[in-house]
Design goal:
The protein is an all-alpha fold and 156 residues long. 99% of the residues lie in helices and 0% in strands.
Protein backbone atom coordinates (compact mmCIF):
# COMPACT_ATOMS: atom_id res chain seq x y z
CA UNK A 1 0.00 0.00 0.00
CA UNK A 2 2.84 2.29 0.64
CA UNK A 3 4.04 1.68 -2.92
CA UNK A 4 0.67 2.76 -4.22
CA UNK A 5 0.76 5.93 -2.12
CA UNK A 6 4.28 6.66 -3.33
CA UNK A 7 3.20 6.07 -6.91
CA UNK A 8 0.19 8.40 -6.52
CA UNK A 9 2.36 11.05 -4.88
CA UNK A 10 4.94 10.86 -7.67
CA UNK A 11 2.21 11.10 -10.33
CA UNK A 12 0.70 14.08 -8.51
CA UNK A 13 4.12 15.77 -8.36
CA UNK A 14 4.65 15.12 -12.08
CA UNK A 15 1.23 16.64 -12.85
CA UNK A 16 2.06 19.67 -10.66
CA UNK A 17 5.41 20.03 -12.40
CA UNK A 18 3.74 19.63 -15.80
CA UNK A 19 1.17 22.32 -14.91
CA UNK A 20 3.91 24.63 -13.71
CA UNK A 21 6.02 24.01 -16.82
CA UNK A 22 2.95 24.47 -19.02
CA UNK A 23 2.11 27.76 -17.29
CA UNK A 24 5.69 28.95 -17.55
CA UNK A 25 5.82 28.03 -21.23
CA UNK A 26 2.54 29.91 -21.86
CA UNK A 27 3.92 32.95 -20.02
CA UNK A 28 7.17 32.94 -22.02
CA UNK A 29 5.30 32.43 -25.32
CA UNK A 30 2.93 35.31 -24.47
CA UNK A 31 5.86 37.58 -23.62
CA UNK A 32 7.65 36.66 -26.86
CA UNK A 33 4.52 37.25 -28.93
CA UNK A 34 3.94 40.61 -27.20
CA UNK A 35 7.53 41.64 -27.79
CA UNK A 36 7.36 40.58 -31.45
CA UNK A 37 4.12 42.57 -31.91
CA UNK A 38 5.66 45.61 -30.20
CA UNK A 39 8.79 45.34 -32.35
CA UNK A 40 6.74 45.04 -35.55
CA UNK A 41 4.53 48.03 -34.68
CA UNK A 42 7.58 50.11 -33.73
CA UNK A 43 9.30 49.26 -37.03
CA UNK A 44 6.12 50.12 -38.92
CA UNK A 45 5.76 53.44 -37.11
CA UNK A 46 9.42 54.28 -37.71
CA UNK A 47 9.05 53.53 -41.40
CA UNK A 48 5.99 55.81 -41.61
CA UNK A 49 7.88 58.57 -39.73
CA UNK A 50 10.79 58.31 -42.15
CA UNK A 51 8.42 58.55 -45.14
CA UNK A 52 6.73 61.62 -43.64
CA UNK A 53 10.11 63.18 -42.92
CA UNK A 54 11.16 62.72 -46.55
CA UNK A 55 7.87 64.24 -47.74
CA UNK A 56 8.16 67.25 -45.43
CA UNK A 57 11.89 67.79 -45.87
CA UNK A 58 11.37 70.24 -48.75
CA UNK A 59 8.84 72.23 -46.73
CA UNK A 60 11.17 72.41 -43.73
CA UNK A 61 14.15 73.41 -45.88
CA UNK A 62 12.03 76.08 -47.58
CA UNK A 63 10.88 77.41 -44.22
CA UNK A 64 14.43 77.73 -42.87
CA UNK A 65 15.70 79.28 -46.13
CA UNK A 66 12.92 81.86 -46.02
CA UNK A 67 13.73 82.70 -42.39
CA UNK A 68 17.42 83.06 -43.25
CA UNK A 69 16.64 85.40 -46.15
CA UNK A 70 14.31 87.47 -43.97
CA UNK A 71 16.96 87.68 -41.28
CA UNK A 72 19.66 88.73 -43.78
CA UNK A 73 17.36 91.40 -45.21
CA UNK A 74 16.61 92.74 -41.74
CA UNK A 75 20.31 92.93 -40.89
CA UNK A 76 21.03 94.80 -44.14
CA UNK A 77 18.19 97.19 -43.42
CA UNK A 78 19.40 97.80 -39.86
CA UNK A 79 22.96 98.41 -41.10
CA UNK A 80 21.83 101.03 -43.62
CA UNK A 81 19.65 102.70 -40.97
CA UNK A 82 22.55 102.78 -38.51
CA UNK A 83 24.86 104.31 -41.12
CA UNK A 84 22.30 107.03 -41.88
CA UNK A 85 21.72 107.69 -38.21
CA UNK A 86 25.42 107.82 -37.45
CA UNK A 87 25.82 110.65 -39.95
CA UNK A 88 22.77 112.48 -38.60
CA UNK A 89 23.51 111.82 -35.00
CA UNK A 90 26.98 113.33 -34.83
CA UNK A 91 25.46 116.79 -34.81
CA UNK A 92 22.52 115.66 -32.73
CA UNK A 93 24.91 113.97 -30.30
CA UNK A 94 26.77 117.18 -29.64
CA UNK A 95 23.50 119.10 -29.22
CA UNK A 96 22.10 116.43 -26.91
CA UNK A 97 25.33 116.27 -24.95
CA UNK A 98 25.39 120.02 -24.33
CA UNK A 99 21.68 119.94 -23.42
CA UNK A 100 22.26 117.14 -20.90
CA UNK A 101 25.26 118.94 -19.41
CA UNK A 102 23.17 122.10 -19.02
CA UNK A 103 20.33 120.13 -17.41
CA UNK A 104 22.76 118.50 -14.96
CA UNK A 105 24.25 121.89 -14.10
CA UNK A 106 20.76 123.37 -13.53
CA UNK A 107 19.76 120.36 -11.45
CA UNK A 108 22.86 120.71 -9.28
CA UNK A 109 22.18 124.41 -8.72
CA UNK A 110 18.51 123.77 -7.90
CA UNK A 111 19.43 120.94 -5.54
CA UNK A 112 22.01 123.08 -3.79
CA UNK A 113 19.50 125.93 -3.38
CA UNK A 114 16.81 123.54 -2.07
CA UNK A 115 19.35 122.06 0.37
CA UNK A 116 20.28 125.48 1.70
CA UNK A 117 16.60 126.46 2.04
CA UNK A 118 15.91 123.19 3.87
CA UNK A 119 18.81 123.70 6.28
CA UNK A 120 17.61 127.24 7.01
CA UNK A 121 14.09 125.97 7.67
CA UNK A 122 15.44 123.29 10.02
CA UNK A 123 17.53 125.86 11.92
CA UNK A 124 14.51 128.13 12.29
CA UNK A 125 12.42 125.18 13.46
CA UNK A 126 14.99 124.18 16.08
CA UNK A 127 15.37 127.76 17.25
CA UNK A 128 11.61 128.03 17.71
CA UNK A 129 11.50 124.70 19.51
CA UNK A 130 14.31 125.78 21.90
CA UNK A 131 12.58 129.10 22.50
CA UNK A 132 9.27 127.41 23.31
CA UNK A 133 11.02 124.90 25.55
CA UNK A 134 12.74 127.70 27.48
CA UNK A 135 9.51 129.68 27.71
CA UNK A 136 7.59 126.66 29.05
CA UNK A 137 10.30 125.27 31.35
CA UNK A 138 11.39 128.61 32.85
CA UNK A 139 8.07 129.33 34.67
CA UNK A 140 7.92 125.71 35.88
CA UNK A 141 11.44 125.99 37.31
CA UNK A 142 10.54 129.29 39.02
CA UNK A 143 7.43 127.70 40.59
CA UNK A 144 9.48 124.69 41.82
CA UNK A 145 12.12 127.04 43.34
CA UNK A 146 9.40 129.06 45.11
CA UNK A 147 7.75 125.87 46.44
CA UNK A 148 11.12 124.58 47.72
CA UNK A 149 11.82 127.97 49.33
CA UNK A 150 8.42 127.97 51.08
CA UNK A 151 8.94 124.37 52.28
CA UNK A 152 12.43 125.26 53.50
CA UNK A 153 11.10 128.28 55.46
CA UNK A 154 8.22 126.22 56.90
CA UNK A 155 10.54 123.44 58.05
CA UNK A 156 13.39 125.59 59.15
Amino acid sequence: MSKENNFKDSEKEKQDQNLFLKGWKNFIDGAKDGFDNFKASLEKQTKKSEELLEENKEKVDGFFNKIKQDWDNKIKQWNTEMEQRSLETKEQWEAGKSKIQQEIKNWQENTKQEWNDGVKAIRKGFFRAYLWAILLIFPIVIIIVIILYVINIALG
